[in-house]
Amino acid sequence: MSKDYIAEQISWLDGIIIHPENSNLFHAENQSVIQRELSSRWINENRLALLNDLAEKFGEEEMLTVIDTIIYMNCKSGWQQVGKEKGNSLNSFIKILWEPLKDLGFEYSIEKKGNQTIFCVTKCPMYNLAKKLGAEKWMYHLLCLTDELTIIGFNSMIKFDRTRTLMQGHPDCDHCYTDLLL
């Protein structure tokens, strides 16, 4: 079996993908089948090979719909809990999510304008991994789409905007957080 870089680098996805409540998310039979198969095979197989296999078996669009739904429901509720436990101000969010990323090899600048905080990410180890694996589309759905959900769950009074990502082939990722209470 080939090395599973996704399992090594983003193991936190395991709890999201195999969450027991995921079976309640899908009413369409095809999507339920995909969810069950994804969940039952996720831990024991190479993640990228599994994603590609299921996309070939069920169609990429159906597969992405299932992943997006799982990510949406689990990520949002997970960050809602973090906000309750650690305080849900924008400053807390930056301290919890963004500050540790520098130690993981991310490079970004921060600009503050009134009630907006703008991050410009120029280096992302997750993008580097995706590019190495030829998995940019999968990683965009598994990782990049969580960005908006984290803040929706954390504090719905902070608006998130992004127009580009490294994962989509742009030179940087722009993350703009607007604190609607300021």
Report on this structure.
By secondary structure, this protein is α+β, with helices and mostly antiparallel strands. It has one domain: Muramoyl-pentapeptide Carboxypeptidase, domain 2. It has 9 helices and 4 strands. Strands 1-2-4-3 form a 4-stranded antiparallel beta sheet. A hairpin with a 2-residue loop joins strand 1 and strand 2. Helix 5 (60-86) packs parallel to helix 9. The termini are far apart. The model has no long low-confidence stretch (mean pLDDT 95).
Poorly predicted sequence stretches spanning 5 or more consecutive residues: none
Tally of distinct domains: 1
Strand neighbour order, sheet with most strands: 1-2-4-3
The mean pLDDT is 95
How many strands, what sense, and barrel or not for the largest sheet? 4 strands, antiparallel
Instruction: Sketch the topology as an H/E string, one letter per element.
Output: HHHHHHEEHHHEE
Structural class: alpha+beta
Separation, N- and C-terminal Cα atoms: 52 Å
CATH topology: Muramoyl-pentapeptide Carboxypeptidase, domain 2
What is the 3D form? Answer: globular
Indicate the CATH class.
Alpha Beta
CATH architecture: 2-Layer Sandwich
Radius of gyration: 17 Å
Total of DSSP H or I helical runs spanning 4+ residues: 9
Q: How many E strands?
A: 4
The share of residues in helices is 55-70%
Q: Report the sheet-strand fraction.
A: 5-15%
